[in-house]
Amino acid sequence: MKLLCSQEELVRSLQIVTRVIPARSTMPILSGLLLETRDDQLFCFGSDLEVGIEIKIPEVTIITPGRIVVSGRTFYDAIRHLPPGRIEMGIDDGEKTFNIKTANSFFSLNIFPAEEYPALPEGIKTINLLREDKNRDRDALFLFSLQAAVFREAVKQSVYATAPQDSRPFLSSILWEFDEGNLRMVATDINRLVIKDLSIKCSSKNSFLVPVKALKEITTILENDDEQIDFLLVNKQLYAVSRGVVFYTRLINAQFPRYEQVIPKEFDGQVAFERSTFLSALTRSSLIDRAVKLSFSEDNINIFATEPDLGQFSEKLSGSYDGEPLEIGFNSQYIIDFLKVVGDEGQIVFNLSKGMKASVLKLNNNEKYTYVIMPLRLNY
Amino acid sequence: MDAFFAAVEQRDHPAYQGKPVIVGGLPNSRGVVSTCSYEARRYGVHSAMPLHEARSRCPHGIFLPVRMKKYQEVSTEIMSILRDYTPLVEPLSCDEAFMDVTGSEMLFGPAEKIAREIVDRIELELGLSASVGIASNKFLAKIGSDLKKPKGFVVVKADEARSFLAPLPISKLWGVGPKTGEQLRKMGIQTIGNLQNLPVDIIRSSLGEFGERLHCLSLGIDDRPVSPGEEVKSIGHETTFQKDTDNRDFLEQVLLSLCEQVARRLRQNSLVGRIITIKIRDADFKTITRRSTLYHPTDFEEIIFETARQLAEENEWGRKRVRLIGVNVSGLQKSGTEQPPLFAEVERKDLHRLHQTVDQIRDRFGEQAITRGRLIKKKK
Q1: Using one digit for the tens of pLDDT, what is the confidence trace for B82-108?
Q2: Interface of A with B in 78-107 (CB under 8 A)
Q3: Do B341 and A168 touch (CB under 8 A)?
Q4: pLDDT average, residue stretch B239-248
Q5: A:B CB pairs within 8 Å
Q6: Which CATH number fits domain B161-218: 1.10.150.20, 1.10.10.10, 2.40.420.20, 1.10.10.60?
């Protein structure tokens, strides 16, 4: 293997791929990156067996093809510390070191035996074949496309309501349900539920659980908001493909609770707020305690928090309330989380239930984002 | 209480009365003496002495294991007698407590009369002997109660405090351990009286603020209030093995049993906790503690165990033969105050009911009445 490449492009690509390689693993070779030439292109692949990324490195001239595995961390650090400009890299036949040369610097890095690297998942190969041959039938695998900015916002608006550290799989992943025209992402940490709907063009119908960690990874590797991401399903793995990058994640094999049943249909009161006023009032109240008591009556909306060791807080809010007088306790953080991820378009509508029943937060005139939260039992 | 654990054993086993009883474990085990009867003390046995040493000093002693559960029960009975006279009871350990009877003298007569009544009731109702110290503050009362054990009854009048303390060794002062004791002895201070006569500036210059506090104590000044209901901050259990071990199956079993005990105590105290900490001490006495924070607070042994086991796995169970293992739950809150879940099916009502039932069986028939199949000890 011998090739020429640009330091700047290589650093940018390695920064992305090295994100998924594990720091510690029972399989040491997974700390390596697979560099492989195919059809005059250089591909770099890294994986922890749950998620993986293949990236096509731009601006590469292949002199002789090859396939090697080199320590990901060391390789990335070495390239990162080289000056911008042309780099010559390669390995001589039969040699055990990977050489990186610039005008004055010379790294000679140890390599892993490439034949021991786990086989690339089926989907990577399939997707590469699809790319080469536009005429191939990809409908069987292709799910839908999303604009990067739209996807990023959807992830931001759903992951906060999950419990990624929990051992129960449905709390550390997000349910994707899609059929013609609509993708629904559903997230929960047991106490609250997010339902986010996105318009898509789609000809199939399916549902599965995607790990939160993977979704966060996808949003960080997308560079450009205008980029288009294609989602494909191959061998029970979800692939996100954008210009030079193929990301895949295993899907979670678990039941998601029947979420439709917990979305209340009828309420005892409704209030409309200005987002920023409500947010700053709750932020003040959370300085005293995370539990907050909201009291509603026709002409009075009040926030109250108390903590015996600290003191009390109360604030009168402006907003219009419609319903019977109510007093409900909430974890203020839950409401703050919602208010932080929605934009300033229109008012916030809070549909309230009395007793220990769930309430619903929505954006005015927007049926595509629903947030269901349980109240908090208060003893004051 | 006088030689509390040993006294409970002698009370429950009349054959042990008048004989040297040593509570702590079998004489060939690696533990230390927890408590010994006054008969055993004549042979020079004292608490915290290694059991093998106790055995060589008192070979015919009756060595008994610690029945903590039993002592806890008796302790509860003692504390409830004390609470008949005032709510201001501050347990110092399971067999010692401070009482502030300032307001109770109107109802029950002077402190001396209350104390006599309590000692008589403990003897009559529980068959145990107690010692009493009566004084104007906690420090003097504690010194008084320790002075004439067993069956001591010491009253320290406020104007006698100085002369009462003067002849006592400096080590009787709270906060004076071997190190400070050594430092004070170098300054020529052997007795509390020596310290009383020392100008406060001198002690302050060598021991700082702490010295000043010691000086106050030496004069019998102590203004800390009796504060009942010390809040539980964490609940934990640990065990030292007879022999260091690296048998993972066995370690897991022990860990599960510890988690069960912790969970049971959480439930007994109506608490749930979020922070699970494990402690592993290896054969070389190197101790590691690792913690993990749960998203939802719990009192389920299944969740505590799974979290603790994972922590242990991640740290390879200390990588060596294990001497001691422990588990602790902190970040506690009252159960029932946690956020109710949206999904009833994830509440694990089945497990909850199981715990309730098992707890009831144990309350009625003892801790050993029911156990998990996994924890049944194989017959040798």
Answers
A1: 989 988 888 888 899 999 998 888 888
A2: none
A3: no
A4: 87
A5: 48
A6: 1.10.150.20
